[in-house]
Amino acid sequence: MINPPDFGFGERLPLPPAGQPESLPYPADPSHGFGRVLTASADTRQGTSLSTESASGCGCDPRYPRNRQLTPRVSARYRNPGLNFAAAEVAALVQRILYPVPGIWLGPVSVHLPSGNVILQLPTPRGGPYDASPVFTYNSQAAKSSGGRGYGISDLYHPTVVQSGSSAWLTSGTGRVLEYSGVGTGSFGTAPASTRNGLQGKAGGGWIEQQPDGLQWHYLSSGLLDKIVSPSGDEWLIQRNSCLVSAIVGPGGRTTTISGDYDSTYTVTQPGGRTTVFTVENRLLTSVTYPTGAVLHLDYGDHNLLKRFVDGEGNETLFAYDRADRLTRITTAEGNVYQYRYLFPETVYDTDYYIEVTDPASHVTTVVHDCNVVRAVINPLGQRTTFAWEGTGDSRLQAVVDANSHATTLTYTRLGTGVLALSGIERPVVGTLSFGYDSSSRCISIEDYDGNTTSLEWDSA
């Protein structure tokens, strides 16, 4: 997990397609070419995964769902050459730190290692610039429970918060559980390493979750999401039918509705009348029908584990699991098979665990882990990529050493929101790229490898 800075909108150049405020986070026909989910842990036991989380895109704008893919806030081009260079370096860093494990990035699902959790995100189509885009996430290791949208399904706009003493637990709308310590009224707690959003208590009861770009998620004292507020004051109000989200009312009254009872078929209707239907049978999500007519099909096995996914073009992906509900095999639409074998330490003195990954050519890649984080990946040629972490469990990536022994070292700083943010990228021989932040947790300076400084100023929006 890294936490890159937000470079803002002001200097960003428009990206195709023309007229869109952002490049599309998923295609117009979402039945193929899904954006890659880089993390969506089902519970805290899965520890930290490498990702850009809510934000290589710097959090979740209601229009651009979090945990989707590298967003333009990282991959965009900017008018300012300093911003352009920094954005390119962060994007290159993200590519370097992705686990080089066969099969886990192929899609349409992503695989969280070392847990073996299978993650499938099902978005609704993009709407207007202020329209909410609901996203529903399936986590295989949460498939024995239901939040009202089917077993294993989380609703992006149905995160919750509970607190005991000064510790608070936030369950995100993608199924991740995050523990914050030292949370008080008007005081940000210490955020876990695997998130980039801060959390503080709210006067009168409830909580505020704040993203690096200033967008705030306001929670009621019951723990349910009440509204989302932008730095410029725009609001997205959450309406409910019992506990289920029934509508998101955006600026100007533009409303996205979600109809349907608990664990039954539900329909998302976006402004303009476009509908996406999520069919639920026996408390399992079995199909998604998009406005274009494209239909996705999902089939399940024991323990409600996803065993078959068919996209809108009829391409079939198959999955198999072990008795611990961990992924053991992926069979792609082309017939390629990727297998995952989980091995225990050979002695009581060995703290490392192993996963043997066999690709379609029968080549074996070995994943070394400690049940929380991946520590190394050894390719079929015996070349080792090593990942060093700041601590155990929920921690930030400290360094990655590639197969040629080239190390990239990362440093962090604790922001006013209680979040650890990336403060430096050190590359061998090249030098260090540094980021500075103000008391409002905004990036205000970038110093490149040659010592040249780019300063950032922010307006209220």
UniProtKB/TrEMBL annotation:
Identification of the protein by name: Type IV secretion protein Rhs
Pfam families per UniProt: RHS_repeat
Sequence ranges of Polar residues compositional bias: 41-55
Region described as Disordered: spans on this chain: 1-66
Organism whose genome encodes this protein: Planctomyces bekefii
